[in-house]
Amino acid sequence: MRILFIIFFGGGLGSLLRYLVNRWVSGLATTVFPYGTFLVNITGCFLIGFLVFFTERFGSNALNWRLFLVTGFCGGYTTFSSFSFENIQLMTNHHIFTLLLYTLGSIALGFAATYMGIVLARNI
Q: What distance in Å separates the CA atoms of residue 98 and residue 106, rounded to the nearest whole number?
């Protein structure tokens, strides 16, 4: 039961931060490109790459932290469902170039950010 609360609390914090970042970015940018979700997902990729690799060095001692940060926080922070919905909206509104830029940029930069997180964690 304790593990469920750890994940639940981390997920709640991640979701709250996602909302705040999305709201902040939306106030800065007034375009059809969904910068808020894009930033959340790329930074989430970096965090998960970093946290998974970084916590591995502590073995079973870091299990609770890994559940809290990776499964809970990163799971609540990043959002594939919003990414998918925003792509459907872009397609429906005939913003095909923005759709391609958002989709390909999210995938390419997501992989790169995850890798950079792993590299940084290895070098700490």
A: 12
Provide φ and ψ at 74, rounded to 5°. -65, -35
The predicted model scores a pTM of 0.88
CA-wise closest residue to 26 among 14, 38, 36: 36
The full DSSP string for 45-78 is HHHHHHHHHHHHTTGGGGHHHHIIIIIIIIHHH-
Tokens standing for 114? 């995850």
Closest to 50 measured CA to CA, from 117, 123, 124: 117
**Where along the chain do its domains lie?**
2-122
Residue in this structure with the two tokens 């909302």, named with its chain if needed: 19
- Identify the pLDDT of residue 78: 95
Predicted confidence band of residue 29 (pLDDT cuts 50, 70, 90): confident
Q: Looking at per-residue confidence, does 27 or 100 come out higher? A: 100
User: Which residue's structure tokens are 């970084």?
Assistant: 54
